[in-house]
Amino acid sequence: MGTEAVRAVEAADDLELVAALGRGDDLSAMVEAGAEVAVELTGPESVLTNLEFCVRNGIHGVVGTTGWTPERFDLVRGWLADAPGTGVLIAPNFGIGAILSMRFAREAARFYESVEIVELHHPDKADAPSGTAVRTAQLVAEVRREAGLGAQPDATSTALPGARGADVDGVPVHAVRLRGLVAHQEVLFGDAGEVLTIRHDSMNRGSFMPGVLLGVRRVPGAPGLTIGLEHFLFDQPGDPVGGRSHGTDVE
Ligand SMILES: NC(=O)C1=CN([C@@H]2O[C@H](COP(=O)(O)OP(=O)(O)OC[C@H]3O[C@@H](n4cnc5c(N)ncnc54)[C@H](OP(=O)(O)O)[C@@H]3O)[C@@H](O)[C@H]2O)C=CC1
Ligand SMILES: O=C(O)C1=N[C@H](C(=O)O)C[C@H](O)C1
């Protein structure tokens, strides 16, 4: 992802690549190079150190690294509270189709008694379930709560550990790791006599780059923490998903 992002920024006429850092490189190289925005694509074990450095130095952050928890988001909010004017976008998925599929899942959620998510990725992925699946489950669960839908039907009384997936906000999420895959997700909705499947496939990492570039262009104008690229994609006035006020959390 980092290699693709470097290529994408270099190819963009309106952006300038001033630094490209890898493991072990001195983060202060970003400050010395005058970086305005940093794109963070490493792993769950290093993202916090890198992002804290950026925020403390007034460098806006576009973060694709996954493995986030509510406690980790709170840490970022704490740093940003001391850095008014600095923006951080944390995007569980930069793929336009993935963001659309999350939106479609939100739309469908109130109509179905059952919902489960299957995410499928390459076996080099560190975190499970994927950030996208966690985010999708949370969005679906929020809509189910608002619609007054209760717990899902499930008569399972005996199961091997993991057989019913991870419980994310009441939504079972199943993670497949398979050589040959890139990044894929199915959201399965079920009700009496019908099943709706919303599937998205990322065929290569280049597919994430338009979203990365959108984040880089937009984050300087969005102080505070923004979770989800949809807030930059769907920001027409009156749009309930994208409407945002600058300087506050947007999730
Ligand atoms: N939001 C989105 O749309 C997407 C998000 N992702 C997420 O982005 C992250 C990266 O994915 P991917 O590129 O596939 O993973 P890779 O493992 O292929 O690449 C991660 C890179 O980060 C480097 N790295 C590790 N630690 C540090 C550090 N402290 N400082 C600088 N570089 C470091 C690694 O170096 P080394 O080779 O030495 O280990 C490696 O080159 C993951 O969290 C993944 O889930 C991925 C795809 C899309
Ligand atoms: O690690 C990956 O590859 C991906 N990670 C992100 C996630 O965890 O959702 C986005 C995409 O699925 C690819």
UniProtKB/TrEMBL annotation:
Q: Which GO terms describe its biological process?
A: diaminopimelate biosynthetic process; lysine biosynthetic process via diaminopimelate
Annotated signal sequence is none
Checking PROSITE patterns in the record gives: DAPB (PS01298)
Key word Amino-acid biosynthesis present: yes
Q: Per the database record, which ranges form the Dihydrodipicolinate reductase C-terminal domain?
A: 97-233
**In which pathway is this protein known to take part?**
Amino-acid biosynthesis; L-lysine biosynthesis via DAP pathway; (S)-tetrahydrodipicolinate from L-aspartate: step 4/4
The terms under GO molecular function for this entry are: 4-hydroxy-tetrahydrodipicolinate reductase
Q: Which GO terms describe its cellular component?
A: cytosol
Question: In the UniProt record, does the keyword NADP occur?
Answer: yes
Residues forming the Dihydrodipicolinate reductase N-terminal domain are 1-94
Q: What class of enzyme is it?
A: oxidoreductase
Reactions catalysed: (S)-2,3,4,5-tetrahydrodipicolinate + NADP(+) + H2O = (2S,4S)-4-hydroxy-2,3,4,5-tetrahydrodipicolinate + NADPH + H(+); (S)-2,3,4,5-tetrahydrodipicolinate + NAD(+) + H2O = (2S,4S)-4-hydroxy-2,3,4,5-tetrahydrodipicolinate + NADH + H(+)
The EC code for this enzyme is 1.17.1.8
> Its family?
Belongs to the DapB family.
Q: What is this protein's name?
A: 4-hydroxy-tetrahydrodipicolinate reductase
Organism in which the protein naturally occurs: Wenjunlia vitaminophila
